[in-house]
Amino acid sequence: LRLGTKSCAECRRRKVRCIFGPNTTVCKECSTHESECVSQQSVHASKGSPSGDEQDLQVKLQGLEEMVHRLCEAMNVRPELLNNSPLEMSAVEALTRLQSLSSSETSLRNTTNVGAGWREVSESRSSPSSDQLGSFEEAPLLNLFQEAMLIQKHHAQSHRNNQDLSSDHRIVTYSMAIKALIPRPDDLETILQMTERFWPIWEESLNLIIGTEPRSITDIASARNFILESMKSETPVLIAKSSLFLALCVQQLPVSFKNQVTNLPAEPNALLDAYIRGAEGLISVNESRPATIDSLECLNILAKLYLNMGKPREAWHCVRRALNSALLLGLHNAGETAPHRQKAVWGHIWQLERHLSAFFGLPSATTDSHPGVSTPPPAQDFGARILYDLAVIAGHIIERNQNHQTANYAVTLAIDQEIQQCKSRLPPGWWNGIPTASTPLTTIYSLGILKIGFFSGQKMLHLPYMLKSSPDNNYEYSRLQALDAGREMIKGYQAVRQHPELMLTICDLMDFQVFTAAVVLVIDLLNQPSQLETHQEASDWNLVHDVTKSLKLVSEAMECTVAGQAQHLLEHLSTFRDGAYKGPDNYEVIIPMFGRVKINR
Q1: How far is it, in rounded angstroms, from Cα 35 to Cα 60?
Q2: Using an 8 Å Cβ cutoff, are 220 and 248 in contact?
Q3: How far out from the chain centre does Cα 558 lie?
Q4: Can you list the alpha helix ranges (DSSP code H) found in 113-219?
Q5: Taking the model in full, what pTM does it have?
Q6: Does residue 600 sit in helix, strand or coil?
Q7: What percent of the chain has pLDDT over 90?
């Protein structure tokens, strides 16, 4: 095809028709392909000229840099970390590996149908969606990573390829990916310094074992050594536990951390998602081997991470997996001579499983006759005894709800007696004590969440009969008990949120629990027939306003979705106080763990 001399150099090289629009200096083909449009004469004149070659190379490099930048944005990787650093380039590879392997694990689980213990790792808070990365799946750089690492595309995988992905290979791949995403020493030091005060809360108040042994992480040096030494080991569970500990730290970082100058391999949200994906992958692959106490502790930490993210369903999955493994280890039959660590892990697992099952309205995996549940702790151990009693009561609420067709109101009153007996076993100072400046943070936090948990059970027990009290005064007791529980939950929550060292402790489940308590108060306030506001009603509105302010503070400082959306909904509901809704005409919001809420004027 002879195009003549009127075609530009690029169109002649590509052997296509060169068409110029009116009053344009760039032809349509060059404009479409974003190529440089130059005449053939200019090319011939510049042949042999080094400056022309350099300019052409510069244009191509600029285009490649733009493509890499777009790819990095989709993967939430900082592009500036890719400049002239082959070592930090592995961060991009690590995120790609974890994204792809997570899909591989999901496909493998669905294909082999290995049971309910398997599940897909969900997206973390504000994490990049798979669609973002999928839109760049044909990018040359991503294809290069896929070919270099033998990664198969999710939609092209076959059963045979999944079978080839051996357990050992997946363990090595997950471990390498996690190690590539460990922050530099100075950035790691900063993260540990900003979260050090929360470590005792995780271990002492929440009964999580975040190190190799209980209380083994005592300062920044021991935490740093635990992470770095774990990454040097070849033990999958140890790598997973250190990754989850680091995930807890990253999750606890405030929004202000983004304003600090760091060289993290990715944004904090992307790192959090990657650490969880990697640890989840190592735990899942390792489940084909005999369980260990460390693997159970990893699942407990993973459940806490999901609860912090407002994902109780994923947390319930983790706890049920941990309970199954604990049964295989025989922890439910541990006698008095069993190590305290084993008894503590078993207690944490079965008690949390009961509370989450009650939360979802599901049957529990244990009953009161279960050998691992039937023996209560010593009466002098107040903390352990009340946690035991609350879990037993949660089991009774589950049984009532599962047999709601045959259970009458007398069953609810009987369970209420158990709650009152549980409350009477503890000294009054536990409920009415005011913390001082010397009170340890762990004590303040433990008492706060204990109050929330106790009165949450009371609220859950009486809530089904609360609104029935309007037409039937026989249920007025349940209404009063539900309202009292809501007030006490808010007071316990405020004791934590108003403390300067604890106000930003992240826990979406705790935020959600107190949000439901506030909603209970608002519903009752709006259901009152009298237009005259009593002293108690004014006090309840003040509690609602106080918890709304606390939720707003948490949502702004920690980017908590649950707290932010709950705060907005409570603000709109509070406008009904004067008898007329003053919010948006058509307000709609989806609150995690609660559902869709619509308000129409």
Answers
A1: 10
A2: no
A3: 13
A4: 130-134, 140-148, 159-164, 167-180, 185-195, 199-200
A5: 0.75
A6: strand
A7: 42
